[in-house]
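Sequence in, structure out.
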Amino acid sequence: MKEFFILNPFQFLSYEITRQLLETGHSVHYQNTIEPFEIEKELMIGRNSNFQQHTKFAKELLEKENLHIILPVYDLLFRKGQFNCFDYSNTINFCQSKSKQPLTIIAPFSKYAQVIAEQEKLQKLTCRLQMIFVPTLYGKYQPENSLFFEAIKNHSLRDSELFNTPDFHQDTLHITEAVSEIIQIMNNNNTGIFLLKNMDKDRLHHCLFTIIGRTVSLPAMNATFIGELKDVKDTGDYLSIIEELSQDIRSGQIVR
């Protein structure tokens, strides 16, 4: 069993990471700085004895030699203005941890250039940095103003409007498969920069066609990635996933 610390575990990506870690028997410490969060999520994982809340990042956690710290900044995309305002200097405390485990930051590839600039600063503070970039994610608890939420909510959106959603990327992965790969990278303890990539290069085309009933001409990728590509086999039945997601969004039964 490993020990993890995760910031804001009740958001879209962070919740799936937390759920999978707890299901595999790991211990997860957390601090929640975002309010409100959905009670449904707390009820599903909050009673797990391996799930421990801290009102602030306790000094004793910094003393743990095997604490793996996770900062899923991807989730800040869906909170107005918070991604651009995120102060990476606040991660200095995490960099000063005595843990021998890497510090893992999970970021959207749509903000690659911005995050890489901060990564270079953090690299000077710690050599234990894992920077994992992910494409557009889809799945249960889809956030408002995300690409999939907007496409399902309004079929008449122009392509340009879809591409302006904060999480848009030319690739997509189901969140369960993406998190499984993220946890595998974390368990290997390899430091560096990683990008998750769907082995099905046409998955986003297929998903959007299923949702809006027309072919979308995706723009060319405008960022050159330097790091290690991780091909992920997205085995989920995306047609069923999208149908269930569509029903939840149209009925208003969503978790914000």
